[in-house]
Specification:
By secondary structure, this protein is mainly beta. About 5% of the residues lie in helices and about 50% in strands. It is built from 1 helix and 17 strands. It has one helix at about 1-15, and strands at about 30-35, 35, 40-45, 55-60, 75, 80-90, 95-105, 115-120, 125, 130-135, 135-140, 140-145, 150-155, 160-165, 180-185, 190-200, 205-215.
Length: about 220
């Protein structure tokens, strides 16, 4: 908020020298659509202010930072929570601010991404309903394999899933888009696996850190 106040003070000082007769003081007003939903939630904000206005200053998430200087704009909310929105309008005849507390409500996706690994063929080690290649073993919340290994990833997400995006090595790239893909690890390393699902309503992401550990690939 300190940053916004400092910027506004400077703008007001400049505009106060431009004030003239017959101009009306600004009154801040705005609306937005939609007001609630699941992340990522893209919200369009519309300025409905009146008066002689030269500058619009938006804070879309109540963090005290200036998010936009456009008259109207949009903002994407990536994280669940209730967000306060501020609009300050400034003109030669003064300034005004409208604050709408907890105006945007972002709720978590009700559908959850989830998955496990299995062996795409025989020679398996079995734990509960999960099976893995014979050269692998269950270790903590993941598995550890010796030598190059092909694993099948089984989706067990909830909801009517329409798209899957898999990242098998935490490099930020999509490695597979099938529901139950296979992937071969040929290099020693500790691998984090991420699945992002898309439904008609929202997206959800599950990351299993250090889920796959591979050793002795080159011995």
């Amino acid at each position: 908020m300190t940053r916004i106040i400092a910027v506004l003070a400077l703008i007001i000082l400049v505009l106060s020298t431009l004030a003239g007769c017959g101009t009306s003081a600004p009154q801040a007003k705005f609306s937005a659509i939609p007001l609630n939903g699941h992340p990522p939630l893209d919200v369009q904000f519309t300025d409905n202010s009146t008066g002689n206005i030269s500058v619009w200053v938006w804070d879309f998430n109540g963090d005290g930072a200036i998010d936009s200087l456009l008259q109207s704009g949009n903002y994407t909310y990536e994280t669940p929570g209730n967000y306060t929105v501020n609009l300050t309008v400034i003109g030669p005849e003064g300034n005004d601010t409208e604050v709408k507390k907890d105006y945007i409500k972002v709720t978590a996706c009700p559908y959850l991404a989830d998955f496990y690994v299995t062996s795409p063929s025989g020679n398996e080690s079995i734990l509960g309903n999960e099976s893995i290649p014979g050269n692998c073993k269950f270790q903590g919340n993941g598995i550890s394999c010796e030598k190059a290994t092909t694993l099948q990833f089984i989706d067990k997400s909830t909801g009517n899933v329409t798209a899957w995006a898999w990242d098998f090595n935490n490099d930020g790239r999509i490695d597979g888009t099938e529901q139950n893909p296979t992937h071969t690890y040929t290099t020693d390393g500790n691998y984090t696996v991420t699945l992002t699902i898309t439904t008609s309503e929202c997206k959800d992401t599950l990351t299993k850190w250090g889920y796959i550990n591979v050793t002795k690939c080159h011995t």
